Amino acid sequence: MQQMVNTMLEGEIEDFLSEGRAAGKVNKRNGRTSKRVVSEFGPLDIATPRDRNGDFEPELIGKRQKSLTSGLDDQILALYAQGNSIEDVRRLLADIYGISISSGSIS
């Protein structure tokens, strides 16, 4: 779960920086900030990526957010609400974020 969340955050900053480059903005990565968040799977040590301009606001886990339940869980529930099966959700997470997670962990 921890690896999945960190991979998703890396994807978020890549998209953020790509959009900025397309708009002509100069911005680059600037390391990571470590924090511990609580999830239904227990505490997770997260490495939130940063940008030099300080403009990046992660959507999955906000800057001062200490609980994962309102981010990823809501996204997974939204996928269920759209009629996706557990296997569909697993495949979507693998395709979008490049992570492998068992169907049992999702349910």
TrEMBL record:
An example Gene Ontology molecular-function term: transposase activity
Organism: Nitritalea halalkaliphila LW7
KW DNA-binding (keyword) present: yes
Entries under InterPro entries matching the protein: Transposase_mutator
Protein name, as recorded: Mutator family transposase
Keywords associated with the record: DNA recombination, DNA-binding, Transposable element, Transposition
Family: Belongs to the transposase mutator family.
UniProt cross-references to Pfam families, sorted A to Z: Transposase_mut
Purpose of the protein: Required for the transposition of the insertion element.
Gene Ontology biological process terms from the UniProt entry: DNA transposition
